[in-house]
Amino acid sequence: MSMTQPFPTPPSSDRLDRTDRVADAGDALPLAWLQERVLGERLLEAMWSARQPATPAQFFVWSQNRLQTLLPHRLLVCATDVPPSPRLTAQLFHLKPVGTTLQAQLETPDHGLWLHLIRRWGEGRRPVRLDVAREAPSALFQPLLEAGLRTLALHGVTGDGERPQSLFLLGGDGWDDEQMQRLELLTPALHAAWRRSRLQQRGQVLPRRVGMLVTPREQQIVEGLRAGLSNEGIAIQLGISMFTVKNHVRKILRKLGANNRAQAVAIAMARRELSEPDPTVL
Questions:
Q1: Helix (H) or strand (E) run with residue 185 in it
Q2: What is the pLDDT of residues 201-215, one digit of tens each?
């Protein structure tokens, strides 16, 4: 009995000939179709694992691991409706500070920036890639440029009427056509993961775990990281030196087994070392 596999796609004779020539030349790269298979496996893994997040903290962990490898981003904003209200709410996930003006814009789906983005996406309801410097009206996008976010990727899930049921905004340094195709494939999983993670009642605080890894002072440091503060900002807030903050951050990364500050915040939240953030309700 023969079985049809969705991937890998058998290489054509032309592609095999090209690969043979490269192999004869010396260091051969993996066959293109093997690279595509790895990508396909990562996509399937991300889609399947989207069922797992049950809280915003777990969603953050998922987005910083499964999603980040396929769609590298510095900022993720999730905007979604909250039935029965037709209005959208938004929550930001970011590592570096984005500025109070931009944060206020992105947390307010009724702001002119979001209205512009919703209109752009609604024109074709397909993934949209925006070069921020070339967008008009420029005043709406200036805070994005000031935060160093020069390219946006936008896609969502259609709802009733003109407004989307969910809309996801990714900010970063740019995406190629292949990554935009990944965004289109992953948006249903992103939508499912985000909706599931918000099932927890707002305002509910999970009990802290016994045997917490981080100290009370380190909790304050991680709270500062979650708020998007720099080392200097945390130092000023807590009245300690930047050197002390840097040492605390190193210890936190080591204790939590995190590779970066965003993962440290996500792991701390998942371990209930921090309270769950309450999405902004507008």
A1: helix 177-197
A2: 444 444 444 346 778
Helix (H, G, I), strand (E, B) or coil at 277: coil
- pLDDT reported for residue 276: 47
Tokens representing 181? 């195709």
pLDDT digits (tens, 9 = 90+) for 80-95: 887 666 678 888 887 7
Query: Within this chain, do residues 259 and 148 fall inside the same structural domain, yes or no?
Result: no
Domain that holds residue 106: 43-197
Contacts of 128 (CB under 8 A, 6+ apart): 117, 120, 121, 152, 153, 154, 155
Distance CA 102, CA 79 (A): 15
10: tokens are: 């058998």
200 Cβ contact list (under 8 Å, min separation 6)? 54, 55, 56, 276
131 and 221 part of one domain: no
**How far, in Å, are 34, 49, 111, 176 from residue 105 at the CA level?**
43, 31, 6, 26
The span from the CA of 42 to the CA of 182, in Å, is: 11
Grade residue 29 by pLDDT with cuts at 50, 70 and 90: very low
As given in the structure block, the two tokens for residue 157 are: 């899930």
Q: Which of 121, 115, 113, 122 minimizes the C-alpha distance to 141?
A: 113
Beta bridge partners of 158: 164
- Each residue's pLDDT tens digit, 174-183: 888 989 999 9
Residue 205 counted as domain residue: no
